[in-house]
Amino acid sequence: MSSLSPQNWLLLKRVVRFGETDAAGVMHFHQIFRWCHEAWEESLEKYGLRASQVFPNDNEVGGTLEVFLPIVHCHADFRLPIKNGDQLSLKLMPTKIDLGSFELKVLFQRGDEDVAIGVLHHLAINSQTRKRCPLPEEINLWLEASSVQFGLRPL
Amino acid sequence: MSSLSPQNWLLLKRVVRFGETDAAGVMHFHQIFRWCHEAWEESLEKYGLRASQVFPNDNEVGGTLEVFLPIVHCHADFRLPIKNGDQLSLKLMPTKIDLGSFELKVLFQRGDEDVAIGVLHHLAINSQTRKRCPLPEEINLWLEASSVQFGLRPL
Amino acid sequence: MSSLSPQNWLLLKRVVRFGETDAAGVMHFHQIFRWCHEAWEESLEKYGLRASQVFPNDNEVGGTLEVFLPIVHCHADFRLPIKNGDQLSLKLMPTKIDLGSFELKVLFQRGDEDVAIGVLHHLAINSQTRKRCPLPEEINLWLEASSVQFGLRPL
Amino acid sequence: MSSLSPQNWLLLKRVVRFGETDAAGVMHFHQIFRWCHEAWEESLEKYGLRASQVFPNDNEVGGTLEVFLPIVHCHADFRLPIKNGDQLSLKLMPTKIDLGSFELKVLFQRGDEDVAIGVLHHLAINSQTRKRCPLPEEINLWLEASSVQFGLRPL
C-alpha cells in the first residue's frame, strides 16, 4: 500500500438521513458526534477488530473487558449546512496522545467541500478501578497502522 | 386521594424540543418512544422508586439487579402533527398483563386534543439466565397503586 | 432477475453500534424505528430515487415538494437481544394499502435467527393543505417493483 | 433580584434517563449536546420567549422567521461518569460574542461535583440569504438579562 493513499479503514462513506435533520431543514448539529463514534467503530471493524474486543457488552460489563475508553473531550466545527441525502466522505485521522489516550479527528466532505469536522478524545481507564491505564494493544495496533500514511503529512 | 383524580405520578408534562423535529417541520416519529420510556422512569421516580432499584447501571449489570424489564413489543399512533414548543400533557395508563409482564399506555394531549398514543410492553427476565420471571415487587406496587383510579373506568 | 430472489434494494445490512446500546448491555428498543426509517431511505436510494424527490428539505419545505409521507402508526416486536457489533440482515417488505398509504415491514435477522421486526405505516398528505392525497408516483413505482418478488409468497 | 443569585432561567434541573446510557453503564457522551440545546430552549421559555419566535417550525421555514441560529462550533469536557437516575443541576452561562453570535456554556453538576461542561457557539444568519446578520432582538434581550448577574464574576 502506498504511503500516499490512505488506508481503507480511514476513508468511509455516510449518507445523511431524514431523521438527522431538524425543522431548519438541515442536519441537527449533535448528530456529528454519533457519526464520529460510529466511524471509529466501523474503522476498527474494517481494520480487523471485533466489537467485543474494544467495547463492553452484555456479557462483559464488569467482566472480562479490562479497559474502557471513555471520551473526556470532544468538539466539532460546522462549515456548511448538511442536508438530507447528502453523500459524505469521512477522513479519519487518529493520533496517539500518550500511552493512555488518543484523539480521533474526522473530516466530513461533500465532494471537494469540507462541511464539518469532529474530534473525539478518548482516555483508557481500568474497567474495575476506573483509574487511567495504558491503551489496549488492539487500539495501539490500529493507531500505529493508521499513522503510517500520515507520517509525512503536514496536517 | 380521590379515586376520580389520577395519581400525580401518572400525569406528566413535556415540552417538544427543536432537536426532536425533522425537515418536515414536525416531531420526528420515533421520539415518541423515548418520551414513553422517559415518562415511565419519571413516573417511577415520582411514585418513590430510585432508578437503581429498577434499571441496571454501572455497578449492577450482571451484579445485584436480579430482574431486567426489556420491551418485547411497542406501538404508537399519531393523530395530529406535533410541533417544536408544544406543551404536551401525558396520561400514563399502566396495566399488569400477567405475573411477569405489564403494558404502559401513554396518551399525549395538547390542550383537549389527543395528538398521539404510545404503548410499551415490558417483560420481566432474570438478569443472569435471561428466562422469564415474576415482576419485581417495586413494579408490582407501582402497578397496583396506579390501577386504583382506573378500577372502574371502562377503558 | 428471478422472482425468487429479492430485489437488491430490499435486502440491506446494518451493524449495531455502541451508542445504540443501553446500560442493560443490549440495543435500546427505540433504535429499531430509526433503523426502519433509514432502511426505507436506503431502499429508495438503491432503487434509484433521490432524497429530494421524496423528503422535504431546506429548499422545499412549504415549497416544491407536494406530498409529505408522515407515519401514522408504527410497531415493533423484539424476539432476541441485539448486541453491539451484531451484523444484521434487513428484509424490507413494503405493501401498498390503498391509493394514499403504504406499510413497510422490516425483518431483522442475525444469521438465521429473526431478532426483531418493525413496521411503519405511511400516509400521503398534501404538503400545503395537510389533507390526504394519492401517493407520489415515485413511491408507487418503488412499491410496484418491490411487490413482484413477493407475489406468490405466503407471508 | 440580587446580582449574586443567578436568574431562575439560568439554573435548570435534569434527571439522566436510561436510554441515555450505553453498555458501559454510563451516559453516552453525545447526549450532553442534546441536553445543552434543550437547556437553551428551556431557558428562553422561562425567560418569556415562545419557541416560534426563535426556531423555525412547520409554518415558518422559508417563511416569516428571518433569522436562523445555527451552531458553528461546540465542545464538551467530561470529568466524572454520569449515571442513570443522576439528578443534575445545570448552570447556563451565555455570552454575547459580537453583534451576530453568542456562546452558551452549560455547567453540569451533581451535588457539589462538576461532572461535565458543554459549550455551543451560535451564529445568526438570514434565513433566506444564509448570510451573517445581527442576532434577533429577543436573543439580545435574553443575553443582556442573563449577563447582569455575571457582570462582576471572574469566570
Structure characterization notes:
The structure is a homotetramer of 155-residue chains. By secondary structure, chain A is an alpha+beta fold. Chain A contains 3 helices and 7 strands. In chain A, strands 1-4-5-6-3 form a 5-stranded antiparallel beta sheet. Chain A has a two-stranded antiparallel ribbon with strand order 2-7. In chain A, a hairpin with a 2-residue loop joins β5 and β6. Chain A is globular and about 45 Å long. The two termini of chain A are 20 Å apart. Chains in contact: A-B, A-C, A-D, B-C, B-D, C-D. Chain B binds chain C through residues 23-26, 29-30, 33-34, 37, 55-58, 61, 68, 70-79, 81, 120, 130, and chain C through 23-26, 29-30, 33-34, 37, 55-58, 61-62, 68, 70-79, 81, 120, 130.
**Could you report the average pLDDT of chain A, rounded to the nearest whole number?**
90
Shape of chain A: globular
Radius of gyration of chain A, whole Å: 16 Å
Distance between the termini of chain A: 20 Å
Strand content of chain A: 25-35%
In what order do the strands lie side by side in the largest sheet of chain A?
A: 1-4-5-6-3
Low-confidence stretches of chain A: 151-155
Largest sheet: number of strands, sense, barrel closure of chain A: 5 strands, antiparallel
Order of helices and strands of chain A: EHHEEEEEEH
Structural class of chain A: alpha+beta
- Helix percent of chain A reads 10-25%
Measured by residues with Cβ under 8 Å of the partner chain's Cβ, the largest interface is: B-C, 28 and 29 residues
Number of helices of chain A: 3
Number of strands of chain A: 7
Oligomer type: homotetramer
